[in-house]
Each structure stands twice: as C-alpha cells, then as structure tokens.
Amino acid sequence: MVQPSTSAYLLGGLLGLFLILPVQMTQTPASMCTPLKTLNNSLSHRRRYMKHNFPINYTIRVHHNEIFKVSSISKMKSYVEGLEDLVLQRLWFQVNQGVLKKIIRVLPERHPSRPYTAELERRFRDLEGVFVQSHPAEVFQQELPETIQDTWDRLTEEPDRVPPSSWRSASPKSLLDNLCHTMHCLFSECFDSTEAQRDYCVVSHRRKGRKKELELRS
Ligand SMILES: *[C@@H]1O[C@H](CO)[C@@H](O)[C@H](O)[C@H]1NC(C)=O
Ligand SMILES: *[C@@H]1O[C@H](CO)[C@@H](O)[C@H](O)[C@H]1NC(C)=O
C-alpha cells in the first residue's frame, strides 16, 4: 500500500555497507535555516487547520514510533550512547514524512485543511532536499545504531505486516505539535532557543514521566 519514497531509499539505503566515517557533531547547516523557518511559519497555523477543521476528538491511526516527541528524543539519547543529532534528524524526516502522508490520506479532496496540509508537505520536502544536499552523501550511508535501525525498520514495514499492538490513535494536531517541538530541539541553531529551551529538549521526559512514548526495544 505504502510505497517507500525516494528519500527512504536515499536515507535508508546502503545499509549493508560497513562504512564508519567520523562525522562532526552536527551543527545545523545555515542553509537549512530558511526552509526551517518557512516550515515553522506554516506550523503556526496548525491549530486552526488541524483542530478546528476536524470533528472533536478526531484521531488517525499511526505507528507507535510515529508518536515522536521531545521525550522520545531524550529517551533515545539515553538508550544510545553518543547518539548523533544527525541520526536523530534523519529519523525525524523519516517519521514526519509518514505522518504528513497519513494526514493527507484522510483528507477528502475538498476538505478545508487540504491546501494547508499539501503546502506543509511541500515545505517539508523542500527542507528535506536542503538537508540532503547540505551533507556529504557518505553520512547517509553510515550504519545506524542498532536501536535506531530497528525503529527505522518498523516505520518502513508494510502496513499489513505491522502487528496490531503497534498501532496508536493520535489527533492530527498532536502529531503536528510533536513535529514542531522536536524540530525546535533537533535544529535548535536555527531557532533562537534560549538555554532554558535547550534544557527542555533534554529533560522534559523526566518531568512529564509519561509512558508509551516511543517503545524502543532495548
Ligand atoms: C516559529 O513560529 C512561532 C509561532 O508558532 C514564532 O513565535 C517563532 O518566532 C518562529 N520562529 C522562527 C525562528 O521563525
Ligand atoms: C472528547 O474526549 C474527551 C476526553 O477523552 C471526552 O471527555 C469528550 O467527551 C470527548 N468529546 C466527544 C464529543 O466525543
């Protein structure tokens, strides 16, 4: 049903290579800041288009790994020693590409949120294009840490092979909230994040202490 996209191939391919290159701890390339801010601007209208235009308590079915929150990032960082931001950024693209597709899929052609969502997806793809261009191709061929690879494989599994227990219900608005908040954490150099916000990106899961965010296998 779901065609793996070109970028999934781009990013996910060549996993057989045992090519470990030293990668600098990532600074978000400056070229990404403009498309990131453009996406951020679109996201500022998400309440109207993702909540008000939907029935109350409307949810869509997503894979539990697609509920990718700030706390999921902290969790992965605590599971995987020395986890690079670049790896998390790749995962962020993979996750949210799927999320946007799923939201678009439930919107009828004439739904009032359709043009908004389509534009959001376009902006997201533009950003992904810049992301891919601003890193050497080798970084996308690097082997991912096992836990991350596992998460990745589950996300790209054929929907009919996903065990029923892996599905979750989530509102479109909450999914875009996650997209926005994690974007601010993973690409913080492009947003004027204060010290306090950066701390939030690291410790929020401890304060909230909720379960079932990202059910990583250990
Ligand atoms: C991102 O969007 C928010 C509104 O949702 C805005 O307050 C903030 O200034 C924007 N940040 C940048 C860097 O554009
Ligand atoms: C929406 O969800 C809330 C919380 O679960 C519930 O209290 C409320 O009755 C629901 N509203 C509708 C219209 O289903």
UniProtKB/TrEMBL annotation:
Gene Ontology biological-process annotations: macrophage migration; microglia development; positive regulation of cell population proliferation; positive regulation of macrophage differentiation; positive regulation of monocyte differentiation
Signal peptide feature range: 1-25
Coiled-coil annotated spans: none
Cellular component aspect of the GO annotation: extracellular space
Listed GO MF terms: macrophage colony-stimulating factor receptor binding
Keyword vocabulary terms for this entry: Signal
Protein name: Interleukin 34
Lineage: Eukaryota, Metazoa, Chordata, Craniata, Vertebrata
